[in-house]
């Protein structure tokens, strides 16, 4: 069993490695065309009707789920993975409470944008505003990003001096605290959650033509566009002084400090950036759903996020995107497994990590690191 | 022959660090390995102590083939290495570090005697016996590493740059110790940058260059060899 | 090495003056019961090479640590160029102008040699994180900074041309310019210390000697006024030490001030202008190499044999 | 697996259709939902057997009780025009999350077991339920505390879930000054020392617990072990055989209220049929699941085949069901005067019907 | 309903009682925390699957007791038999599971010298597999079991009642912690464990068999988790397929609080966490106890970045 798996994996690595090399060998313009075609395909995906490929649709099974809706969720997770990748993959900080930022983003739009939120109701009463006044969606967007960045900084400020796994457990606590506050406070709507969260066309109503309640396609396209934008943004960070500083800090923080790189500052930035992306995805998620409740932001989700990043290949955006996509998509496509889903999912996670420890699409640097380390592993140990 | 290395190759990833070297060390000898940075001296030591897997070739110790033996089992056979970079257990006290050297030994009395001997050799360590290894100064750590290796009472002692980071007086002392324990019956394979000292104390020596043995001979022969003098002894 | 002259920019290349660059002022540092530094005072003068020697455990490395903010003195203070050093964070101290290497090499093992040095150039960046993200601050490029148009493929050529026009009209972002300058400088430094041939290799895979030199290059990249070297020759053979000696002289000749910890007397005597000797955390001697060599206290505590002991 | 009959047997095109049923069919609280699902399946099966020319298909969608899983399902059902009605959601959260979507799609929802009061308060046009809401049950429990148990000091505990917090606030309202103190526990909590010492300090003679079995069973066990003898009353979330099993001997005498009928009281042959089909008595909401399906099936039988027709049909529904008489108010609640709330007692480790709680 | 209201009377009126409650709650955290700390100390990785090792222990106790036909409050002889049988079975099964976890999820990665993050994910995966397997097999609802030791008040100080079960749990935790501490810090084998923790390569050069040491620490962690499982069953009389998740997180928090890699720290952290939680739950409600626990954690780490007692097994500073 393991033997065949290993062989499969060898072959996969061979093939993907080969593809990678050949891909990089292509002239730039050919790569550009390839990328454009791929992006086009992504936009076409919710309409997927190519014979033979329809098998991939999540609604191709009897109890299947809305295909565009699942794609939307996948895209949201990809966005989350990008954000967490900054924190884990680039800055090397293990954040086990990333769902906290996701929640802050979601609650930002819910608390300020929904007419049913206690905060908005409070504001209405306080300033004598009309019953259907609420902060506009377009204003909630920067607000959500701002609030998550602030929460990132608030979390990071006291804790970023901690090392490695101390940080992990503290962040985990942060995620839980956010959820518990949301669940047990009145001003967050408590366990009942908040409904009537607006989208780009305002509060959810049957009249919203584009970003409506039923058709998820426009939502998917919206998030996909954001994702593509973020690819550029994150790459810019990665291939800049900032990315290099993150890498140096990851390797040896003290040495970096003595070379004039402020570990604290760059880690805080990583947290803030990661948080902003998490907040943005939470924001979009809440707008689409129109309703959120605290149970949607459990610690398990945080762990799933980490799994997406690591299994996909921490540090590599294509990798984490693939990881996020698969981890969101597979459980939906294989709904028929019903109660065995999580079990199979866990087993798959173990197998992927055992046979492709650098992730599905490893960052080239990480892969090299691991290869070196493996070769160097002491004999017989 | 106590140690026979035959046609040994060793790789780090794609880089081949040793290209088929053969070295022998006889019972009771001091054999020195000298060579420039990156020549493969440390790598050779690692192959003998079992820290790195060997690509091809064999390592025999006291007649037994130990090429694929686990590192900890080699210790039981009587090979002990004082590693490059010292390998102090930072969270253990000086005393515990020394005790680790005697990990495979059971003779309590002998261990206690050896402990006294090491403290006698390095009074500094005795002063600091309760200090955590990681907080010692570089030179103190070096003393500790050598002292710990002595605690194993090995048949074959591998010393990788024992004089590194030591003050001139202590360097002198270290080499005297090496001679002394050798006279007491311990076979020594020594890697040193201080070629002058190493060659004058070694019975035989090998010169390594980029993973190959380029010269071998008695210590005195090499000490007077013009090529060796130019490359490793510096301008007098 | 001549081509590096203009690239390695120098700290106010003033002639060696008598003014003190670094002052260690009655510094005491205790770890529990261990007194690692006991009321030590000395100063480093601009443009000199000062040697710091002493037996093992005398407190030399600890002194470096106190100067670079790794430890805080229990009492006393360190002043650098008029500023107090004690109490600042390591990266702030680096920006004051102190750079160091480590006794146990501490490179960024998974970064290439070039990247390692580029981390050192980081302190010369003016772009902040948003700057690196949005790259809105643009500068009019100098002619040599403009993108080249050299392809024969029509499409590609058109693309290059577009970029050229774009750069001419909108300028090039400061971040990009800084990155390029940093890379040039890093390469120059690698050449300067003599390891440019393996610039793109991971630091962890470099031989020991290369790693030591890489540390020096990385420290130089921060454009320090004072370069502190902690046993740079450890693990070198005499021939290599000779090269290192030359390198340190070159560094000094470029106007840097150097503080050197080293146990190899030939190197210390050959390169330093003055020497400070520590023992058991106390300063026991100070003076020119010749004075120190003949100082009976130093001989008793450290050198062992009167003459050259190596 | 499609339940009830085969697809291709649909009659003459003027009859039959497709129902979607969604809820937590897997996951920790599936035990509360499965009987309802089975009830609905049974109804469909009976219908199809009786009306060969009016075949109805019912498709299951498992949400694991989570709102974020229910939303894409709602999209799927809303966009698939072949679905003409919905049974669900089973829990309040998933119902709340999906109501706007179903409303926008003009699909009628009939829920067997979502009891949160607020669901019907916001004026949603699509949502209906064949079960009493939390305010009715809370009020009934309050009546039970006052009249049957004659409690003087009631300690109210909830688990902070949508369901628990909602019903706790209703019962608190009903009890007024009889509530001495309240406390919140959390999901997956195992140690209840703090709560227990509060109960002791308050010298409560009765405890109302609003939440599910997973926390209630250990809580009750620890309460009894700590020597607290106060009467323990839980709500329909505990109407699950796992509750007495988990709490062990301590559960003896505990009360569970439920807006659901004891099997024996259900109208017609439902109980017998259910037992024959599934080999066990209908548990929580089995009858309600049956009724929810029946309301819709009657519509299909009557020739209603579009979403609009079915919505109107349900709004106008007025007929005896197996669990109660079913007639909806304007807001979609079942007529409050027809709601029945029962008190069950744990006896010999089983949930046994005790008495109907009369509100007035 | 109010958000947070603070009830000082409830806390200070029965401070002693809450402390005792907290200590007994915390001693179970401490035992599980020891397993995390051991593995972390040696391998620098969070063994996420350890919570499942504990969970399996509780189910083993349930199984053993039901095989032995346990009933509520049996005779004293039977009690001892049940406890012993439960302990042996749970320790054996948990220990075996822990060693198996190492074999399946870690060994291959260890050979490859993979970075810790990878271990974390396999651990999470394995943890999911184990808990889901039990969820499917044993159902997802609480499983009750007989109350083997009837609670009784041993003695009363002021208004503080100390019960037999509390004394047993706290004592058991203390004994096991000190036993382990002696083993690690005083014995030759323990020194081997610490050596592997600090520098595996050099440890091998000293003659330490790394694989054996690692298997040993997993085994020890598993045995302790088994003991914790028994105490848990005695104390709570319930278990569930996912008991491990929350308890594991708490135990890991406790380990960090005390200084991860530090055995005494695990004990201290566990007890402290238990007490803090009970205080917080009394002061407000159980809903906020986790918040209090994490706030205390953050505050402690701010002042002592490596936990209350600092790291000890692992690399100190340097
Ligand atoms: N971990 C490693 N990964 C890859 N290459 C390595 C590694 N360690 C050593 N090498 C390479 O192997 C060769 C031999 O290195 P080795 O450390 O044995 O040299 P050495 O003779 O001990 O030198 P030094 O005097 O610097 O200690 C060098 O080229 C070095 O770059
Ligand atoms: N963190 C610490 N805790 C306790 N003692 C320490 C600590 N750091 C250093 N020391 C002690 O302080 C003394 C000075 O150490 P230092 O590293 O400065 O010596 P050094 O002069 O650099 O010696 P070497 O030439 O051997 O490197 C040593 O005796 C060392 O054991
Ligand atoms: Mg070497
Ligand atoms: Mg030093």
Automatic annotation (TrEMBL), chain A:
The chain crosses the membrane at residues 32-55, 67-89, 96-114, 134-157, 219-237, 268-291, 303-330, 342-361. Its main location: membrane. It is a multi-pass membrane protein. Keywords: Cell membrane, Membrane, Transmembrane, Transmembrane helix. It holds the Pfam family BPD_transp_2. CDD domains: TM_PBP1_LivM_like (cd06581). It is found in: Cell membrane. InterPro entries: ABC_transp_permease, LivM-like. PANTHER family: HIGH-AFFINITY BRANCHED-CHAIN AMINO ACID TRANSPORT PROTEIN BRAE, HIGH-AFFINITY BRANCHED-CHAIN AMINO ACID TRANSPORT SYSTEM PERMEASE. This is Branched-chain amino acid ABC transporter permease. The lineage of its organism: Bacteria, Bacillati, Actinomycetota, Actinomycetes, Micromonosporales.
Automatic annotation (TrEMBL), chain B:
Signal peptide: none annotated. Residues 3-235 form the ABC transporter domain. GO terms for molecular function: ATP binding. Keywords: Amino-acid transport, ATP-binding, Nucleotide-binding, Transport. SMART domains: AAA (SM00382). PROSITE patterns: ABC_TRANSPORTER_1, ABC_TRANSPORTER_2. Belongs to the ABC transporter superfamily. This is ABC transporter ATP-binding protein. It comes from Phytohabitans aurantiacus. The lineage of its organism: Bacteria, Bacillati, Actinomycetota, Actinomycetes, Micromonosporales.
Automatic annotation (TrEMBL), chain C:
Gene3D superfamilies: P-loop containing nucleotide triphosphate hydrolases. It holds the Pfam family BCA_ABC_TP_C. CDD domains: ABC_Mj1267_LivG_branched. SUPFAM superfamilies: P-loop containing nucleoside triphosphate hydrolases. Residues 22-305 form the ABC transporter domain. InterPro entries: AAA+_ATPase, ABC_AA/LPS_Transport, ABC_transporter-like_ATP-bd, BCA_ABC_TP_C, P-loop_NTPase. PROSITE patterns: ABC_TRANSPORTER_2. GO terms for molecular function: ATP binding. Keywords: ATP-binding, Nucleotide-binding, Transport. This is ABC transporter ATP-binding protein. It comes from Phytohabitans aurantiacus.
TrEMBL record, chain E:
Pfam families: BPD_transp_2. Belongs to the binding-protein-dependent transport system permease family. LivHM subfamily. PANTHER family: BRANCHED-CHAIN AMINO ACID TRANSPORT SYSTEM PERMEASE PROTEIN LIVH, HIGH-AFFINITY BRANCHED-CHAIN AMINO ACID TRANSPORT SYSTEM PERMEASE PROTEIN LIVH. The lineage of its organism: Bacteria, Bacillati, Actinomycetota, Actinomycetes, Micromonosporales. Keywords: Amino-acid transport, Cell inner membrane, Cell membrane, Membrane, Transmembrane, Transmembrane helix, Transport. This is Branched-chain amino acid ABC transporter permease. It is found in: Cell membrane. It is a multi-pass membrane protein. The chain crosses the membrane at residues 28-46, 53-70, 76-105, 117-137, 165-184, 213-237, 243-260, 267-285, 291-310.
């Amino acid at each position: 069993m393991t033997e065949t798996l290993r062989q499969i994996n060898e072959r996969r690595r061979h093939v993907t490695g080969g593809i990678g090399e050949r891909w990089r060998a292509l002239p730039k313009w050919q790569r550009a065309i390839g990328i454009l075609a791929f992006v086009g395909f992504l936009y076409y995906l919710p309409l997927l009707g190519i014979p033979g490929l329809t098998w991939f649709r999540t609604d191709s099974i009897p109890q299947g789920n809305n295909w565009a809706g699942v794609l939307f969720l996948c895209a949201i997770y990809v966005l989350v993975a990008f954000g967490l990748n900054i924190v884990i993959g680039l800055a090397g900080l293990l954040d086990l409470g990333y769902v906290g930022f996701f929640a802050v983003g979601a609650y930002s739009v819910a608390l300020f944008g929904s007419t049913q939120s206690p905060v908005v109701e409070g504001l209405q009463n306080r300033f004598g505003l009309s019953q259907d006044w609420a902060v506009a969606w377009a204003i909630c967007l920067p607000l959500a990003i701002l609030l998550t960045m602030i929460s990132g900084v608030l979390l990071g400020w006291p804790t970023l001096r901690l090392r490695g796994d101390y940080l992990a457990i503290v962040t985990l606590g942060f995620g839980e605290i956010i959820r518990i506050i949301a669940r047990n406070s009145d001003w967050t709507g408590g366990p009942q959650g908040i409904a009537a969260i607006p989208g780009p066309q305002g509060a959810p109503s049957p009249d919203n033509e584009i970003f409506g309640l039923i058709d998820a396609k426009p939502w998917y396209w919206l998030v996909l566009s954001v994702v593509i934008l973020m690819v550029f943004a994150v790459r810019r960070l990665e291939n800049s002084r900032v990315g290099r500083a993150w890498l140096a800090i990851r390797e040896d923080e003290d040495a970096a400090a003595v070379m004039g790189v402020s570990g604290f500052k760059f880690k805080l930035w990583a947290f803030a950036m990661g948080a902003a992306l998490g907040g943005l995805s939470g924001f979009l998620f809440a707008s689409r759903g129109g309703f959120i409740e605290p149970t949607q932001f459990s610690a398990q989700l945080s762990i799933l996020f980490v799994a997406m990043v690591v299994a996909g290949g921490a540090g590599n955006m294509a990798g984490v995107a693939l990881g996020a996509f698969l981890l969101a998509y597979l459980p939906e496509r294989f709904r028929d497994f019903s109660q065995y889903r999580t079990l199979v999912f866990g087993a798959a996670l173990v197998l992927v990590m055992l046979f492709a420890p650098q992730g599905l699409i490893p960052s080239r640097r990480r892969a090299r690191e691991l290869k070196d380390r493996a070769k160097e592993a002491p004999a017989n140990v | 022959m106590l140690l026979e290395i035959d046609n040994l190759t060793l790789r780090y990833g794609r880089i081949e660090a040793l290209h088929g070297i053969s070295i022998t060390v006889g019972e009771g000898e001091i054999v020195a390995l000298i060579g420039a940075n990156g020549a493969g001296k440390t790598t050779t030591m690692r192959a003998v102590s079992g820290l790195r897997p060997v690509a091809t070739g064999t390592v025999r110790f006291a007649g037994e083939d130990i090429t694929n033996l686990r590192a900890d089992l080699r210790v039981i056979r009587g090979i002990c290495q004082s590693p490059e970079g010292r390998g102090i257990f930072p969270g253990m006290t000086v005393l515990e570090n020394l005790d680790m050297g005697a990990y495979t030994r059971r003779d309590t009395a002998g261990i206690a005697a050896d402990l006294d001997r090491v403290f006698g050799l390095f009074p500094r360590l005795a002063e600091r016996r309760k200090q955590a290894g990681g907080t010692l100064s570089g030179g103190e750590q070096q003393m500790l590493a050598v002292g710990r290796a002595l605690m194993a009472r090995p048949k074959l002692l591998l010393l990788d740059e024992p004089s590194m980071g030591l003050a001139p007086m202590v360097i002198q002392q270290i080499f005297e110790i090496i001679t002394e324990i050798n006279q007491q019956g311990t076979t020594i394979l020594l890697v040193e940058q201080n070629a002058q000292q190493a060659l004058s104390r070694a019975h035989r020596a090998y010169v390594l260059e980029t993973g190959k043995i380029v010269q071998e001979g008695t210590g005195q022969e090499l000490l007077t060899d013009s090529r060796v003098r130019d490359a490793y002894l510096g301008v007098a | 090495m001549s081509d590096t002259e203009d690239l390695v920019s120098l700290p106010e290349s003033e002639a060696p003056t008598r003014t003190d660059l670094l002052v260690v002022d009655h510094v005491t540092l205790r770890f529990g019961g261990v007194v690692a530094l006991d009321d030590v005072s000395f100063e480093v003068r601009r443009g000199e090479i000062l040697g710091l020697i002493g037996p093992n455990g005398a407190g030399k490395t600890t002194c470096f640590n106190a100067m670079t903010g790794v430890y805080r003195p229990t009492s006393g203070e360190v002043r650098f160029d008029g500023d107090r050093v004690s109490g600042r964070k390591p990266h702030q101290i680096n920006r004051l102008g102190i750079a160091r290497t480590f006794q146990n090499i501490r490179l960024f093992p998974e970064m290439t040699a070039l990247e390692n040095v580029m981390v050192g150039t980081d302190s010369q960046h003016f772009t902040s994180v948003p700057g690196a993200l949005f790259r809105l601050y643009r500068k009019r490029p100098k002619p040599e900074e403009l993108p080249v148009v050299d392809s024969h493929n029509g499409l590609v050529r058109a693309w290059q041309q577009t970029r050229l026009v774009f750069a001419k009209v909108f300028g090039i972002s400061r971040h990009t310019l800084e990155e390029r300058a940093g890379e040039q400088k890093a390469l120059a430094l690698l050449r300067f210390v003599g390891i440019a041939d393996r610039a793109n290799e991971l630091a962890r895979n470099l031989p020991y000697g290369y790693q030591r030199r890489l540390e020096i290059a990385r420290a130089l990249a921060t454009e320090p006024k004072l370069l502190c070297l902690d046993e740079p020759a450890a693990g070198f053979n005499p021939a290599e030490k000779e090269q290192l000696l030359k390198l340190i002289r070159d560094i000094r000749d470029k106007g840097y001030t150097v503080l050197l910890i080293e146990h190899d007397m030939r190197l210390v005597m050959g390169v330093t202008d003055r020497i400070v000797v520590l023992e058991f955390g106390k300063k026991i001697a100070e003076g020119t190499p010749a004075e120190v060599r003949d100082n009976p206290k130093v001989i008793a505590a450290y050198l062992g044999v009167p003459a050259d002991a190596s | 697996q499609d339940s009830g009959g085969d697809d291709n047997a649909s009659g003459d095109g003027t009859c039959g259709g497709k129902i979607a049923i969604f809820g937590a069919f897997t996951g920790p609280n599936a035990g509360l939902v499965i009987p309802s699902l089975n009830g609905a399946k049974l109804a469909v099966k009976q219908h199809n057997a009786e009306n060969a020319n009016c075949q109805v298909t019912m498709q299951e969608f498992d949400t694991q009780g989570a709102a974020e899983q229910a939303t894409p399902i709602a999209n799927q059902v809303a966009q698939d025009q072949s679905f003409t009605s919905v049974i669900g959601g089973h829990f309040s959260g998933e119902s709340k999350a999906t109501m706007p979507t179903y409303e926008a799609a003009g699909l009628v929802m009939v829920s067997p077991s979502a009891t949160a009061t607020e669901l019907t308060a916001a004026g949603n046009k699509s949502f209906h339920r064949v079960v009493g809401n939390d305010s009715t049950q809370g009020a009934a429990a309050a009546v039970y505390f006052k009249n049957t148990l004659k409690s003087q000091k009631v300690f109210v505990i909830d688990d902070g879930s949508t369901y628990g917090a909602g019903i706790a606030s209703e019962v608190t309202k009903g009890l007024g000054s009889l509530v001495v103190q309240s406390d919140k526990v959390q999901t997956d909590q195992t140690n209840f020392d703090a709560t227990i010492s509060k109960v002791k300090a308050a010298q409560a003679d009765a405890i109302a617990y609003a939440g599910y079995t997973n926390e209630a069973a250990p809580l009750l066990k620890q309460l009894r072990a700590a020597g607290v003898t106060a009467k323990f009353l839980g709500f329909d979330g505990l109407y699950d055989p796992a509750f007495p099993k988990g709490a062990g001997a301590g559960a003896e005498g505990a009360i569970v209220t439920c807006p659901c009928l004891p099997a024996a009281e259900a109208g017609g042959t439902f109980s017998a049929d259910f037992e024959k089909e599934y080999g066990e008595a209908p548990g929580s909401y089995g009858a309600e699941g049956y009724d929810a399906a029946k309301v819709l099936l009657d519509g299909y039988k009557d020739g209603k085949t579009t979403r609009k027709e079915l919505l109107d049909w349900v709004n106008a529904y007025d007929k005896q069901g197996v669990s109660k008489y079913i007639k909806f108010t304007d807001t979609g609640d079942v007529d409050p005067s027809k709601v029945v709330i029962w008190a069950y007692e744990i006896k010999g480790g089983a949930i046994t019907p005790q008495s109907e709680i009369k509100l007035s | 309903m109010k958000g947070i209201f603070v009830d000082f009377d409830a806390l200070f009126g029965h401070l002693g009682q809450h402390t005792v409650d907290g200590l007994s709650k915390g001693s179970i955290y401490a035992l599980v925390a020891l397993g995390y700390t051991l593995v972390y100390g040696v391998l620098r990785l969070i063994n996420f699957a350890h919570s499942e090792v504990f969970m399996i222990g509780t189910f083993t106790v349930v199984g053993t007791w039901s095989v032995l036909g346990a009933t509520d409050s049996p005779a004293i002889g039977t009690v001892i038999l049940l406890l012993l049988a439960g302990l042996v079975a749970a320790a054996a099964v948990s220990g075996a599971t822990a060693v198996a976890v190492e074999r399946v999820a870690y060994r291959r990665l260890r050979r490859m010298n993979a970075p810790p993050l990878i271990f974390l994910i396999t651990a999470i995966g394995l943890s999911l597999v184990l808990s889901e397997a039990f969820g499917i097999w044993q159902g997802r609802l609480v499983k009750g079991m007989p109350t083997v030791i009837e609670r009784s008040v041993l003695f009363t100080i002021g208004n503080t009642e100390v019960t037999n079960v509390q004394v047993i749990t706290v004592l058991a935790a203390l004994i096991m912690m000190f036993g382990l501490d002696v083993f690690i810090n005083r014995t030759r084998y323990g020194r081997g464990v610490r050596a592997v923790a600090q520098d595996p390569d050099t440890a091998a050069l000293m003659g330490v068999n790394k694989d054996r040491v690692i298997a040993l620490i997993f085994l020890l962690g598993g045995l302790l988790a088994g003991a914790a499982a028994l105490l848990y069953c005695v104390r709570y009389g319930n278990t569930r397929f996912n008991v491990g998740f929350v308890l594991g997180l708490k135990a890991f928090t406790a380990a960090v609080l005390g200084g991860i890699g530090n055995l005494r720290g695990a004990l201290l952290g566990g007890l402290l966490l238990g007490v803090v939680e009970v205080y917080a739950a009394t002061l407000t409600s159980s809903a906020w106890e986790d918040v209090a626990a994490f706030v205390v954690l953050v505050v402690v780490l701010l002042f002592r970045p490596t936990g209350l007692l600092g790291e000890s097994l692992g690399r100190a500073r340097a």
